[in-house]
Amino acid sequence: MVFTERRIAVETKKSERYANIIPVAELNTKEKRLLPFPVYNLLRRLTPVRFDESRSTWDVFRYEDVHRILKDPAAFSSVRMLSDKERETILTMDPPRHSQMRALVNKAFTPKIISELEPHIRSITNDLLNAVLDKGAMDMVHDLAVPLPVIVIAELLGVPSKDRDLFKEWSDILVKGPEENTDEAFYQVMAEKGQATEQLNAYFAQIVEQRRLEPQEDLISLLLSAEIEGQKLTDKEILGFSILLLAAGNETTTNLITNAVRILTEKTDVQQQLRHNPELVASFIEEVLRFYPPIQAIGRVAAADIEIGGKSIKKGDQVVSWVASANRDETKFADPETFIIDRKPNAHLSFGFGIHFCLGAPLARLEGQIALRTIIERMGDIRLAADADLTPIQSPFVYGVKHYPVVFQPL
User: 307 has which bridge partners?
Assistant: First the structure.
C-alpha cells in the first residue's frame, strides 16, 4: 500500500498533527535554530506553560514540569493517533504492553552486550579517522559522526555494509520535520516518512525471514529468540523496533558527537582542559548532552484533564516537553549557561525519564566517549573551518547541523 500526500491529508486531521515535528514560530531564523537556547530561556521565564494555537499544542519549558510529565505515563500518554497502526513502536505505547515490549527488548541490550562492543567501536573510529588524518581537515558529520553510529547499528541489526548509505537516507527522512507550519508542508513530510517506513518494513522483513532460518550473532536474531513467560515479539514488533533503533540510534549519536566537537571548537578552554584531563571524557559527554542536547523535545498526549503550571490541560491535548529548555533551568542547574566539564550532579533530561528512558542511552554514551577520546588523542588544535556555513537539521525536535567542517593538527 503506497502512502500518498492525498491519503495522509484525508486521514490526518489538523488536530492530530504531531506537534513536536512542527516548526515553532519563535525559531524563525537560521541563527535562532543554530542556537535556540536564548529563545527557550525567554519562553521559560515569560510563558513556562503555554498553548500554541498555530500548532494546537501545549509547550512546557520548566524542568519541574517537564520532569513531572515524563515520569507520569498514566497522566501523559505516549500513544499517538497514528493514521497507520503499522507504525506503532515501543515509543508510542503505554503500559502494560510497553512494559512487556521493553522487557523483551532489554534481552538484546544488556550491559554485557554493550560493553563487548567497545573494542570494535574503537577500531571503527580509528579506521574512519585514518582516512582523513593526513589532510588536516574533515567534515566531522560526514567523515565520522554519521558513519560511526550507522556502521554500529547496521552491524547490530545484521545489515550488509553495502546498504549503509541507504540506511542513512532512510534515517534522515524519519527524523525530518516540515520547513514551515502549513498543512501542505506537514502532509508532504508525512508522505516521505510513510514511504521510507514502507521501504524499511520490506527491507527488514527479508532479514527477519533469513534470521529465522539461519540465526546469526545480531540483534534481530536475539529479538526473534527473546522470550519472557512464553511470550515472544511479533514480526511487526521486531520491524517496528528495528526501524526505531535505526532512526533514534543513528540521529542521536550523530548529533551527540557533532555537538561535542562543536563545543571543543567554540570553547577552546574546554578543549585544552579535556586534553590535559582525558579522564573527564565521560562527564564532558554528559555536559554536552545537557548543553547541546541531540533531542530538544518529547511529545505526549494528556490522558485526562490535568493542571500543569497553573494551566488546565484537557484530555486528548498534545503536550510537548522542551528538554532543551529544562536542561537550562536555573532552578535546577547552577550557572546553566556555562559549560562545566565536570558538572555534578547533572540530572539532564536529554535521554528522557521514567519508563521511556532511552534504551540506547548506554550505547550512545559509549560511542560518544570513544569518539571524543580518540579525537583528542589523534587531533590537535581543532577549529571550525574559516569558510564554514552551518545549516541546522530540518527538524524542530532534533538539534544538530548538516555539516561541521573542521581543521586540525594531526597528532
Answer: 312
Rounded CA-CA distance 183/49 in Å is 25
Q: Are 320 and 298 in contact (CB under 8 A)?
A: yes
**How many whole angstroms separate alpha carbon 160 and alpha carbon 300?**
35
Q: Give the model confidence (pLDDT) of 223-282 as tens digits.
A: 888 776 777 888 888 888 888 777 777 788 999 999 999 999 999 999 999 999 999 999
What is the C-alpha to C-alpha distance for residues 286 and 118, in angstroms, rounded to an integer? Answer: 18
Backbone angles phi, psi at 330, to 5 degrees: -70, -15
* Burial category of 222 from C-beta neighbours within 10 Å (exposed 0-12, middle 13-18, buried 19 and up): buried
Global pTM value = 0.88
Q: In this structure, what are the phi and psi dihedrals at residue 290, rounded to the nearest 5 degrees?
A: -75, -45
Summarised one tens digit per residue, pLDDT across range 121-146 is 999 999 999 999 999 999 999 999 99
Q: How many residues does the chain have?
A: 411
The sheet that has 318-322: what strands, in order across it? 49-52, 57-60, 318-322, 297-302, 76-77
